[in-house]
Amino acid sequence: MLYDTIEFRRPYKDINEVLYYIVEQAKNGINYCKNSAPKFSDPQKLFNYYNNRVVYKNDPPGVELIQSPGTMFENNYHGTPGAGDCDCFSTLLLASLWANGFKENYIVLYGRSKRHPSHISIMTIFEGTDFYLDLTEKKFNSERHYPFKQLLPVFN
Questions:
Q1: Please, which pLDDT band fits residue 54 given cuts at 50, 70 and 90?
Q2: Predicted local confidence at residue 58, as pLDDT
Q3: DSSP secondary structure code for residue 141 in this structure
Q4: Could you give the dihedral angle defined by the CA atoms of residues 54, 56, 59 and 60, in that order, rounded to the nearest 10 degrees?
Q5: Res 99: pLDDT
Q6: pLDDT for the residue numbered 5
Q7: For 27, 30, 69, 128, which has the most beta carbons within 10 A of its beta carbon?
Q8: How does residue 98 score in pLDDT terms, banded at 50, 70 and 90?
Q9: What is the pTM of this model?
C-alpha cells in the first residue's frame, strides 16, 4: 500500500462502488497533494498545474482502476507518472481541492442515461461561481455535453 492507497483494481461492478472509491482515494490523497504540489489560491491555478502533469490512459481491459494521487504520480499502474483516466483525474482533483481548503465540491457524472454514466469530472464552487475541472479537457472550466448530467456533493 503506497501513500495510504486502497488497492482498487477489479472488474467494474457499478457506479456506486466507483464513487465510493473515488472519495476514499481522494481522502487518502490529501496529504500527498499538500506535500507534493504548491498551495493554490483559486481553482484555475490548480487545474493549470495538474493539466500539464497528467496523461490520459484507459483502464486495463475489463478492469476498473482508481489510483490515489500518490500512486498515480509515484507508482503508476501504466508505468507513466500522472497516467490515468477520468476517475483517476477526478480523484486527484478532489484530493487537491480538499488539500487547498476548497469545501464545496461535486462529482459530476455524464452519460447517455442515469443508469450508465460514461464520464466523470469535478465541479467546485469558488467565491459563488461554479467551476468545472476536467483534466481530460485542455481548457479550464470546460465540460462535456451529454444528455445526462448529475452533480453529487462530496464532503471531506
A1: very high
A2: 95
A3: T
A4: -100
A5: 98
A6: 62
A7: 69
A8: very high
A9: 0.94
Torsion of CA 17, 20, 21, 26, to 10 degrees: 160
Q: What angle do CA 55, 61, 67 make, to 5 degrees?
A: 45
Strands 9-10 and 55-56: unpaired
Query: Alpha-carbon torsion 142, 59, 32, 108, what sign?
Result: positive
Nearest to 59 by CA among 21, 107, 96, 11: 11
Delineate the domains of the chain, giving CATH numbers in brackets. Answer: 9-154 (3.10.620)
Q: What pLDDT sits at residue 3?
A: 58
Cα separation, 131 vs 140, in Å, equals 8
Q: Which amino acid makes up residue 35? A: N
What are the φ/ψ torsions at residue 48 (nearest 5 degrees)?
Answer: -60, -40
